[in-house]
Amino acid sequence: QESTPAAASHPLALAPVAAPPASVDGFVREFLRNLNFERGVALSSSAPNDRYMALAYTVRDYLMARWLEDQARQRELQAKGVCYLSAEYLLGRQLDNNLLAARLTEVATEAMVACGIDIDELRQQEVEPGLGNGGLGRLAACFIDSLATMSVPSIGYGIRYEYGIFRQTFVDGQQVEQPDAWLTLGSPWEFPHPEAAQKIFFGGHTEKTTDEQGVETTTWVPGWHVLAVPYNYMVPGYHNGRVNTLRLWRAVASNAFDLRIFNSGDYEEAVRAQTFAENISKVLYPEDSTPQGKELRLQQQYFFVAASIADFLDHQLSADFDLENLPERVIFQLNDTHPVIAVPEFMRVLVDERGMEWDAAWAITQKCFAYTCHTLLPEALEVWPVDLLGRLLPRHLEIIYRINEEFLLEVRERFGDDELRIRNMSIISENPRSVRMAYLATVAGAKVNGVAELHSQLLREKVLPDFDEFYPGKFTNVTNGVTPRRFVRLANPGLAGLITEALGAGWTVDLERLRGLEAFAEDPEFRVKFAEVKRANKRILSDVLRERDGFVLNEDHLLDVMVKRLHEYKRQMLKLLHIVTEYEGIVSGRVEASSVQPRTFIFGAKAAPGYAMAKRIIHLINAVGSVVNDDPRVEGRLKVLFPPNYNVTLAERVIPAADLSEQISLAGKEASGTGNMKFALNGALTIGTDDGANVEIRELVGDDNFFLFGMTEPEVEALWAKGYKPAEFYQADSGLRRAIDLIASGAFSDGDRSVFEPVVSNLLYDDRFMVLADYSSYIAEQAKVDAAYGDQDAWTRASILNVARTGFFSSDRSIRDYIDRIWHTPPIL
Ligand code: 475
């Protein structure tokens, strides 16, 4: 509905209420007002959560006027903007980010001191919204930060999951998942708008009618519906006074319960419909890099994109907007295939609801969507069985069929009746008949992009070659990036201060300026200061791990870190074989413990709850850790720490402390990686394969400042072609043999050989990700790491050069690339 401007006669009613004065006194007053009036408590009787909430409300108050103005302006100007459609946003904590963006950090800190409050204690109150699994969700969060900082008109659309990614605990070294009840104490950052709810329909059937002119129209007669209630989040730009919007949808039943049934005493039945509806936004699917072919997941996908499209058309467009002009007004960016059902939904709205001709609607659709692919694993390409899709969304299935029919006709025109090609390119695959969502996105999208140079190339050459040939110019690359605000400025204040001291402010929004640090790499004094920052970060991490997990971190150790989702292609097993090799060398007496470079290995990784092998690997990491850490023969020189529940909050402490970043996926499997960028920007050196964005990191930092190992993607292909037999590698390398034998012997499972047998036999007889093939090269490169770490000053120099040369990986640059190559949505200052 239209917003109704009240007859504004009072001068104060003409504009949003101005922000309170940005002084300590002003902040204190606003804070106490919020504590008293919003929380309903006195300072003296307030709980930490009350104080955290009041602080968050106060930060909001400072951003509010700008937010309201920006929303009004975005509607007024009707400039072209981005609707970023993503099933995941892995936001991390909001308080510090919003304080920073609003330049309030100091004022707020002093104001809290004035109230006798430790602001750090309040920071700890915030439960991060973990509304994503891993890289894809965190990328979306970085992108909305950059969009706001660069003043690009945009809205992020997604799902407000009541439960985000599960909380991981370990019981006897094994992963146990707990629900992530992040909303229990309420979130101060969200603004629900039940008045702007959209009705979302499902099921039912379609009916065709023909009018007097013989024009056929189809009506969808849905079977049921739910309400989509939007929750708005502020997305403040950094120091530019801009506040964009993230709009997350919650599913709510339209009828809370059936009073008649309730009165008859069947309480469960009375609320059945409500429970069913509200399940849609209940929980994030914890699968990463594998699609879940569950009806509920398709419901989630359709739910949020249908609500988002309707929201955009109803609330963002001016009343007299001519839909023919949509391509000049909006681009819907599809973050992987999860939102791709938006394509037939958009067609349905234009044709069935707005009465547009099919061809005209299709021409518009093909200009209004673009698709980002985040994977190369064939098993990760999402497909929906036709019967499931037809049952849940019968009209959409018809639309998909027609899109496919017309598309295949075009293919025939171009290539003749090449039936094999046609079968390969069809959006519908056979046995079982399913919709290939990546194909649908490719056909509908104005552009298709991969997320790193190598990935985009492989996407064109290996995954979608026929489409690349058919649509010249449609495929492009946008290498991922990360926000320097959260991952340098906030996560590493020591380094940020040092950079500002050296280069002046400004680098936070123009990260290529880090180049200026190259000169400082040659300055011994600067190197000392830089090394001190790294050491201080290790101390901070040490405190966090002691508090959080009771771990002891030796700050003199080389800190070797592998944090990412647990997946076989990422090869946590390769890291583990390195650790076991080192350990075996010492306990067998072949290596003098005192000659070993002291190292602490840190793992952080969640396994999808249904991914048995990944869970076994977690168990094995913990098992190796508990044996190695307690073995006196190691003399404390090897430590394995695996803090549970790795998340954005922990990442912000681990990454700045790391010396070595492990990016060791099998070449051709990791689309990009973004953790790799965060580590390099914080001065960790990378040991990595020629995969994903590692390739670009190495090109930028230089071979001397990067530890490269392993097969290249063509070498991987060649080895498969030749016939890969992992057991041959086992036979050929005595170190590898001893490491695997030690695991197989039960040394890490109290002599029980059966516990890790599946891991061992998987490596020896299957090894889909060629861990054994890359083992010797990895071990050799790790020896170089040890040697290099021996010269601390040289290491620090390389570390500075990593920071200096990786400014390219700012998500601001990614967004600029999206604007130039795909969106054509200039910033509106
Ligand atoms: C890639 N998540 C990284 C990153 O581009 C890349 C899949 C299915 C369901 C839910 N979540 C997923 C992913 O596939 C994912 O996170 N992919 C990652 O995207 C950003 O840097 O290489 O693995």
Strand % is 5-15%
Indicate the overall shape. globular
Output the structural class.
alpha/beta
Radius of gyration based on Cα positions: 28 Å
Q: What is the CATH class designation of the largest domain?
A: Alpha Beta
For this structure, what is the CATH homologous superfamily of the largest domain?
A: Glycogen Phosphorylase B
Stretches with pLDDT under 50, minimum 5 residues:
none
The number of distinct structural domains comes to: 3
Assign the CATH architecture of the largest domain.
Answer: 3-Layer(aba) Sandwich
Helix content percent band: 40-55%
* Ligand inventory: N-[oxo(pyridin-2-ylamino)acetyl]-beta-D-glucopyranosylamine
What secondary-structure arrangement, pairings included, does this model have?
Elements: H1 24-38, H2 48-77, E1 81-85, E2 89-90, H3 95-101, H4 105-114, H5 119-123, E3 130-131, H6 135-149, E4 154-159, E5 167-171, E6 174-178, E7 190-192, E8 198-202, E9 205-210, E10 216-221, E11 224-236, E12 243-252, H7 259-263, H8 267-270, H9 272-278, H10 295-316, E13 330-335, H11 342-353, H12 358-368, E14 369-372, E15 383-385, H13 386-392, H14 394-415, H15 419-425, E16 428-429, E17 434-436, H16 437-444, E18 448-450, H17 453-463, H18 465-470, E19 475-477, H19 484-490, H20 493-503, H21 517-520, H22 524-549, E20 558-563, H23 572-587, E21 599-604, H24 612-630, E22 638-641, H25 648-654, E23 660-663, H26 675-681, E24 685-688, H27 694-701, E25 707-708, H28 713-722, H29 726-732, H30 734-744, H31 757-765, H32 771-790, H33 792-805, H34 811-823
Parallel strand pairs: 1-4, 1-13, 4-12, 13-14, 14-18, 18-19, 20-21, 20-23, 21-22, 23-24, 24-25
Antiparallel strand pairs: 2-3, 5-6, 7-11, 8-11, 9-10, 11-12, 15-17, 16-17
Helix pairs in contact: 1-2, 1-4, 6-34, 10-11, 11-12, 11-14, 13-14, 22-33, 23-24, 23-30, 23-32, 29-30
Bound molecules: N-[oxo(pyridin-2-ylamino)acetyl]-beta-D-glucopyranosylamine (475).
Residues 133-136, 139, 287-289, 291, 374-375, 451, 480, 670-674, 692 line the site of N-[oxo(pyridin-2-ylamino)acetyl]-beta-D-glucopyranosylamine.
